[in-house]
What we know:
The protein has 368 residues and is mostly helical. It has 21 helices and no strands.
Amino acid sequence: xxxxxxxxxxxxxxxxxxxxxxxxxxxxxxxxxxxxxxxxxxxxxxxxxxxxxxxxxxxxxxxxxxxxxxxxxxxxxxxxxxxxxxxxxxxxxxxxxxxxxxxxxxxxxxxxxxxxxxxxxxxxxxxxxxxxxxxxxxxxxxxxxxxxxxxxxxxxxxxxxxxxxxxxxxxxxxxxxxxxxxxxxxxxxxxxxxxxxxxxxxxxxxxxxxxxxxxxxxxxxxxxxxxxxxxxxxxxxxxxxxxxxxxxxxxxxxxxxxxxxxxxxxxxxxxxxxxxxxxxxxxxxxxxxxxxxxxxxxxxxxxxxxxxxxxxxxxxxxxxxxxxxxxxxxxxxxxxxxxxxxxxxxxxxxxxxxxxxxxxxxxxxxxx
Length: 368
């Protein structure tokens, strides 16, 4: 830091004492001896209440303890007396980021850049924050600026992958994730592997996603995202027995995961193992109400020819989720299978009255 630590009229011996205590405080912070570090900074503040080293130290200590608002107060107090203190600016911006106040964090980091406009760490943080507030243009602009300065910067490449993924530009996201792999193929982060796999899931190139999720599992045999990715890829490839292997592996770790219970029920239903499907849907509902589990049971009734039962369930679901096109198409299909063509048409027209255009609904109406 280049700010004065005390008033000019402090005696040299006191300056030396403050400097030594400050060094000790920061050394203790690095060792995570937070309470001892706080004692040191408090001693400095007793001698010099506006000392920038001590105020930043107290901010850093509070941040390490998860006391973010207290940290904000210390950094702001420092900046009142030392407005150009980069460490206080950096700490304050990170606090706002931790509180999900990304716009405030951006403002502080941009203030920091007035003093150091080539700081790659700060630039990537700003780009990350713009990504969090869904500002695609500014986020991409700053990531690209970082890559001009350092062409293989991993934070910028990873950030660009996330940015394009968040905006559903999966092919572009894949480009950056694969670039990350080519830079560090020997020790690739598991999150890069699962991210590439997820791009293939979204692009429906399921078979191409499988090897990446398998590589992730070799690194972490119980990684949820890798297990989920494999299960979903095999579901997309219509290899339901294989998908069940991974749904069940997730349930071994997390037996009360409603989403996985319903996905498992769906797989058994599509394999015509109706009793097992019913068991998994009911297990999900025993945890708490779940739309997809009720929908699964309704579809189970439909496939078993219990049309009145299915119709009742779909009607109840529509009352709770009146804009879900799939519920209307399933209900209309039940009416058709039960021989009620007029009610099927009425159901589809009821959806169209909502003013939502859906090709599936239009196609069904045309075919009827």
